[in-house]
Amino acid sequence: MSRLSKKIALVVGGSSGIGGAIVERFAMEGAEVYATGRSVVEKERRMKQADGVVHAIRADASDMADMERVFAAIRAERGRIDVLAINAGVAEFATLGTISADHFDRILGLNVKALLFGTQGALELMSRGGAVVLVGSIAGFIGTKGYGVYGASKAAVRSFARTWANELAERGIRVNVVSPGPTDTAMFDAVSDEMREAVMKSIPLGRLGRPEEVATATLFLASEESSFITGAELCVDGGMAQI
Predict the structure, then answer these.
(1) Given the residues 150, 160, 164, 188, the one annotated as active site
(2) For residue 198, what are the contacts with CB-CB under 8 A and spacing of at least 6?
(3) Confidence class of residue 51 from pLDDT cuts 50, 70 and 90?
(4) Is 150 assigned a catalytic role?
C-alpha cells in the first residue's frame, strides 16, 4: 500500500531540486500534493504521478499574502493538510567582513521567518496525526567559511523543530528535520570550484547527494513508518558531518 495514500500534502518550495524531488516522491506514494514555488505556472496544473496528484501553485514563500492564498485554496478544495514539508530556502556566500543588512534580511527572511509563519499558517489546517518535515542543513552545526548567516538560519530551523515537537505533541502532530549535506542541485552549482573540490574531499562516500535521496528520507519522516519519531534530525550527508 502507498505510504501516503489519501493524504493531503503541502510542499513549500517544491518547484525544483530537493523540493521538486519531494513533491514527486510524495505523489508516487499516493498523496495529493500542493506544491508551491516562484517558478511554477500561475494557473493550477495537475500532473498524474503514480497514485497521487500534484497541484502546482506559483507563490513566494516569503510573501505572507501569497501563502494565505495557498492556504485558502487548500481549505476550499480539501479542507485539511496531513503532511507539511517546508523546503524553501536560499544560500549566499558572505564572510563576516562582507555581510550586509540586505544579505542578512534575505537569508533570515526566507529560511527562518517564512518557515515560521508558513508552518503557523498550515497548522490551522492540520488535525491530529499530522506530520511536519522541515528541510534544514548540516550547515546548521558545522562552520562553513562564508556561510555564517546561512548556517545560523539552519540552526534556527533545528531549534524550531525541537520546540514545536514539544508544543504540538498534545495534538499528535510530529515535527522533524531532514538535513542534507552537499546535494547535486542548482544551489550547489553556485559554489566556487575551490569550495566544490574541498567539499568533495570531505564526504566519506565520495560523491554529492541526489535530491531523490533527500526525498526518500523526507518521505520516511512524513509517513507512519516514523510514527514514534518527533523532534529529531535525520542527516542525509554521505557521512560528511557524522564521522
Answers:
(1) 150
(2) none
(3) low
(4) yes
